[in-house]
Amino acid sequence: MLPVLAEHWGSASSVHAMGAQARAWLERAREQVAGMAGCEPDEVYFTSGATEALNWAVKVAGLGDAHVPRGIVASPIEHEATLAACRWVAGKGAPLQWMQVGADGRARPDEVDRRCLAGVGLVVLMAANNETGCVQPLDQAVRLARDAGALLLVDAVQSAPWGLAPFRGSGADLLALSAHKFNGPQGVGALLIRRGTEFTSLLHGGGQEQGLRAGTPNTASAVGMGAAAAQVEARRRSAGAVAALRDGLQALLSASIEGVTLTAPGSPRLPGHLHISVRGVQGEAVVVGLSQMGVCASSGAACSSGAVEVSHVLKVMGVSEEQGRGAVRFTLGPETTADDVDRTVRAMAEVVAELRSLGGRGTG
Ligand code: PLP
């Protein structure tokens, strides 16, 4: 990225030599992303991230060419970018149906009533959930989309870094990626559009990205995404080792802290995800305490104006209010070490003990 930013900053849309150089880099990056995602380079459309890719896919497929609202069937555990875009399209008159979700953290596309599919233009299911890490039944979503005669949109933001749900062979027509989930830069992603799929632009202007996504391409970021994509194979090879470290973390946390519950035990999950709930404490408070000890984690709960809301994902799974409030998520990657795991367990034990000693004050 640095040479592109510092020296070779021509616009990939220009015909002059600097433009041609930028274009060559952009196209190389497209090939690298295609190689990682298992598709053809001309199926890769760079965007500003997965939020844009998901909005593009949902709004165009949901509204249709003539802006005659079509129906959408989506899982309610999608990322907020998808959920908000679906609600927006529904506000324009498109019927919106939600899939059921089990306590196992997995959506149930097979249980959608086939008699209610008339006019449905889009089925949406993520390949793996970003909070729980639960891998979703994409084969069922493919069947549902086929039965409905609809396009299938897959959010592969979390799964692609681990090699799950490659585009080719997955049955998806549209697939969203985000570079920063596999060590690329933030603010760049892609929508993959299966060849032959009728699709239109969300952003209108110049004819960039095969006429489907207007605007001077962010060549440096695309180059960064391409470089990260080219290295993703090594990350994927580390999946077994990462899962073993994650399992070790889970076992140590359970052994050293009372009242630790694993979310959706037994469900297939991403190698680096560990989602737990700690009895009697608030996830947000745990995350703040951990951060002070140099450990970065997440809570499933979003805190706004002092009120802690249990995440929409845990709610539809039927997780109790108390368990939802105590949610903490750890994500491990190829760079995580056994020492990191030990440090995290020690920090967790200390933070939880302190919060419990505060009684009601730390438990929200
Ligand atoms: N989808 C999932 C599953 C995610 O985890 C994220 C980001 O965390 C997004 C979409 C949004 O991606 P971006 O930050 O690139 O807009």
Topology:
Elements: H1 2-6, H2 17-37, E1 44-47, H3 50-63, E2 71-74, H4 80-91, E3 96-98, E4 120-126, H5 138-148, E5 151-155, E6 174-178, E7 189-193, H6 208-211, H7 219-230, H8 232-237, H9 239-256, E8 260-262, E9 273-278, H10 283-292, E10 302-304, E11 307-309, H11 312-316, H12 321-325, E12 327-331, H13 338-357, H14 360-363
Parallel strand pairs: 2-3, 2-4, 4-5, 5-6
Antiparallel strand pairs: 1-7, 6-7, 8-9, 9-12, 10-11
Helix pairs in contact: 2-7, 3-4, 9-13, 10-13
The protein binds pyridoxal-5'-phosphate (PLP).
Pyridoxal-5'-phosphate is lined by residues 49-51, 79, 81, 126, 130, 155, 157-158, 178, 189.
Task: Give a quick precis of the structure.
By secondary structure, the protein is of the alpha/beta class. The protein is built from 14 helices and 12 strands.
